[in-house]
Amino acid sequence: MATKKSKHPADAFNAEILANAVSYNVHLRISPTRKVTEAAATIAEALDIRDKVRAEYSKLAQRRDPMIYAVDAAGRSTLIPKDQLPATGEAADEAFDIEQASAEEPIAEAPASKPKKGKTAPKAPAAAGGDLPAIPDLSAPCHARYLAKMAEVLAMAKAGDIAGLKAFEIKTNFTTGRKIGAYRDAAIAALEGRAA
Hints:
Elements: H1 9-19, E1 21-31, E2 34-40, H2 43-56, H3 58-61, E3 67-72, E4 77-79, H4 92-95, H5 147-159, H6 162-167, H7 175-195
Antiparallel strand pairs: 1-2, 1-3, 3-4
Helix pairs in contact: 5-7
């Protein structure tokens, strides 16, 4: 008898935010020091903003398309994959159908641990058999401004983008940065283990 494969914590994390989104953010990094970030109340509005940003920065958009993040009531955000976005904003709110996280498959909580002193990055929970590590707990308000960065790392880890993860930079001289950096490093190790 075939057993139902449980949803990976990262997938459940993303699906829960997408299913309970209350707003959206359109993001395009123009340069290392400049970026465009605009909020939208609906997915249709976000798609319209994305199209306007594409037009305004057409040369850049040919290489780097604006990203749309879903944001839930708790302030958590996750990148919406392109294949789950409608082509245009017309009737997008009715057509926008993203799989909800199953109540039988709750998001796995990372075990609580005391932060280490100094600037040494904490080790993420070990991943067995090439599985991605557990998602760090960034539910505290102090982490809110960095949730988009965590979402980027999760999206790259889910996609198996080792090069993108290695190129992703975040300062690790503060708690949130250390947690995200530790997850990135553990995800790289897990993905490289799969490829070995």
